Amino acid sequence: MSSPEYPKWIDDDLQKIRDAGLFRSRRTFKPLPGGRCLLDGQTLINLSSNDYLDLAHDDRLIAAATSALSEMGVGARASALVSGRTEWHERLESQLALFEGAEAAILFPSGYAANLGVVSALASEQDTVFCDRLNHASLIDGCRLSGARLRVYRHDNLEKLKRELEKVTGDGKKIIVTDSVFSMDGSLAPLVSLCDLAEKYEAILMIDEAHGTGVWGATGRGLAEELGVEYRVTVRIGTLSKAVGTMGGFVAGSSALVDWLWNRVRTQIYSTALPPAICAAACEALEIIQAEPERRRVLFERADFLRKELQQRTNITIPASNGPIIPIILQDPDVTMKVAAELQEAGFLVGAIRPPTVPEGTSRLRVSVTYAHTQDDLVRFLKALDRSLARNVESR
User: Fold this and answer.
1) Which of 5, 78, 264, 352 has its CA at a distance of 20 to 30 angstroms from the CA of residue 24?
2) Residue from 136, 155, 174, 242 carrying the catalytic annotation
3) What is the pLDDT of residues 309-346, one digit of tens each?
């Protein structure tokens, strides 16, 4: 059977993407234990993963998922409000609420679904949403989908946010939306100042702890816990697909908020529930995160070592950041792709990030350190990076 003919503009647009050096090709990976992966027959040290605590391949999570898989089968078979919410979904929501120190929690099939659905449910045409310019695409898309007036601010200069909050009049809601840890920069949102502004101007503050859950805070609840502002935040969203090592998103909060979300958020109401086996694995992961805080300590030690070493290089730019996300700014997308390819040849997989994911002129290698990486892994990476930089990047 032949394929239908598509409009010529598709080919034209693809060519524009290729000409700009921004064409994205699909690759197939096999995850391996120990922070490794297999690509085209080559075993690579994986420095592009968000599995910060090295839990995705943990035997205890695999055993929990296997047991639930045998008992419950593969899929949830329906949306949560129809018949897809099993005892494992209930257990995970209860465990998340306990872990987050909240009254209740609600699950979503992905962090993207949580962000998109919650923002678009909270905000409407008579409201104003204030969105950090570095927020994840799912938050930005949620702001746009809501139909609310959109105001963009920079978290490193909150004066504009303050001025925009002062301008808003009327009965519409004011909603400040931010990541806690910005995924492409590794920088942290100024949550204390944002809480102050939200309280002064009677705004709702919504934060996404996607890269904070399991990593930041005394017990791993996120940056809000680290900074002592959890109970000043109206809506806290988290993800299970990064440090927790599984998949899905969630919101933790008051029982009233969670009940409202159950009845209003379309991405939850109309999505098939998470597989029960995933919920079982996530329950096990939450227990490990609480029982083994040394995972976070080692993670930060490794990340601090690598960041300090990289900051000594004069031919790259390392923005101020904290935690396991370390961006190496190379500016030019072609150079970025070339360095990433040479690192792969040397046995290291790093994320090569180009526009439109990041602004023009800020193409970068996004390095993610995990608990699985050893000091030797990172030293070897630095040597391979230095060789590639010497060939491709001039000193600045």
Assistant:
1) 5
2) 242
3) 999 998 899 998 889 999 999 999 999 999 999 999 99
